[in-house]
């Protein structure tokens, strides 16, 4: 391939990229300040401890029992993961693979919810009497007493519209469409924000550059909150958040007994925690 052809190809790619950016910007309302930047935050910016997958010290994660354990300990906020079964049932589960939580290796997307219900969940290497719950069961049991953060695990589910509409139906039935947090992979989260702007969506991105790129997302696609691992938060990043007025919209996960006291000093209001008794004094 000649140099002229290479240069011509690069120019064509560049023009297409610029054109795509212009179209995306037009659809997304440009890159200025997002109107919903002033949307009321959950908890009014006060520090919130969020139970990661419930509290699974004695019961399996992402179960009704783990949520009940969180309530028992005084949590008012919980994070759970949501997947879809082969027959379209949304249920609580985190992993892409089955081995850790079911004790055997099989393809999760090939199982109906009824088939999953036949299998005991494992906890700390042993089978239990607990089963995976549906999202509907969870919301019916806890939507009135807990603020809920749903982390949607698409894991190969490419029907964005159907998944978004089904999720919205569950939230509206529970009456929490405007008082919960919804996170997922970047593409689905931005789609949710565009289709259902009333939802409070969460942008997931590790590292300083990915978080700064938040401001490069067109306004109508831009999620309302930002989350990453605590280990990705630097002093520079905290300074940037304050200057951008985004500190009150920041969440961190990966918070446990080892780093809890340090992270608590950062001024970040939403801490997704692995429960430990050292947190008891900060629970309601």
If you consult CATH, what is the topology of the largest domain?
TIM Barrel
**How many β-strand runs?**
11
Distance separating the two termini = 68 Å
What is the 3D form? Answer: globular
Strand order of the largest sheet: 1-2-6-7-8-9-10-11
SSE sequence, one letter per element: HEHEEHHEEHEHEHEHEHEHE
- How many helical stretches? 10
Largest sheet: 8 strands, parallel, barrel
Low-pLDDT runs of 5+ residues are 9-25
CATH class of the largest domain: Alpha Beta
Strand content: 15-25%
What Rg, in angstroms, do the CA atoms define?
A: 21 Å
Structural class category:
alpha/beta
Helix content: 25-40%
Number of domains: 2
Chain-wise SSE layout:
Layout: H1 3-27, E1 48-52, H2 64-73, E2 77-84, E3 90-92, H3 99-102, H4 113-117, E4 122-123, E5 126-127, H5 135-142, E6 147-152, H6 160-174, E7 181-183, H7 186-195, E8 200-204, H8 207-212, E9 225-229, H9 235-244, E10 250-255, H10 260-264, E11 270-273
Parallel strand pairs: 1-2, 1-11, 2-6, 6-7, 7-8, 8-9, 9-10, 10-11
Antiparallel strand pairs: 2-3, 4-5
Characterization of this structure:
The structure is a single chain. The protein is of the alpha/beta class. It folds into two domains: 1-30; 36-282, Phosphatidylinositol (PI) phosphodiesterase (TIM Barrel, Alpha-Beta Barrel), CATH 3.20.20. 35% of the residues lie in helices and 17% in strands. The protein is built from ten helices and eleven strands. It has helices spanning 3-27, 64-73, 99-102, 113-117, 135-142, 160-174, 186-195, 207-212, 235-244, 260-264; strands at residues 48-52, 77-84, 90-92, 122-123, 126-127, 147-152, 181-183, 200-204, 225-229, 250-255, 270-273. The chain has an eight-stranded parallel β-barrel with strand order 1-2-6-7-8-9-10-11. Strand 4 and strand 5 (126-127) form a beta hairpin. The radius of gyration is 21 Å and the shape is globular. The relative contact order is 0.14. The model is unreliable at 9-25 (pLDDT under 50).
């Amino acid at each position: 391939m000649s140099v002229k052809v290479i240069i011509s190809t690069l120019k064509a790619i560049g023009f297409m990229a610029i054109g795509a950016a212009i179209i995306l910007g037009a659809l997304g309302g440009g890159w200025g300040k997002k109107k919903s930047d002033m949307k009321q935050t959950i908890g009014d910016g006060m520090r919130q401890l969020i139970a990661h997958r419930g509290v699974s010290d004695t019961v399996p994660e992402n179960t009704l029992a783990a949520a009940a354990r969180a309530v028992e300990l005084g949590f008012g906020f919980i994070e759970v993961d949501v997947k879809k079964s082969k027959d379209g049932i949304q249920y609580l589960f985190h992993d892409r693979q089955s081995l850790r939580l079911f004790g055997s290796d099989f393809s999760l997307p090939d199982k109906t919810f009824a088939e999953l219900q036949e299998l005991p969940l494992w906890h700390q290497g042993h089978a239990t009497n607990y089963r995976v719950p549906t999202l509907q069961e969870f919301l019916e049991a806890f939507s009135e007493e807990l603020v809920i953060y749903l982390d949607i695990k698409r894991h190969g589910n490419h029907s964005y519209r159907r998944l978004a509409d089904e999720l919205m139906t569950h939230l509206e039935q529970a009456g929490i469409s405007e008082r919960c947090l919804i996170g997922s992979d970047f593409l689905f989260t931005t789609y949710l924000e565009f289709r259902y702007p009333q939802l409070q969506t969460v942008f997931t991105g590790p590292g300083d550059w990915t978080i700064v790129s938040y401001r490069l997302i067109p306004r109508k696609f831009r999620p309302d909150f930002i989350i990453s691992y605590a280990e990705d938060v630097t002093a520079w990043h905290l300074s940037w958040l304050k200057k951008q007025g985004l500190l009150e919209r920041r969440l961190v996960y990966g918070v446990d007994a080892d780093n809890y006291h340090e992270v608590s000093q950062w001024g970040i209001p939403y801490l997704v925690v692995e429960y430990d008794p050292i947190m008891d004094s900060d629970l309601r």
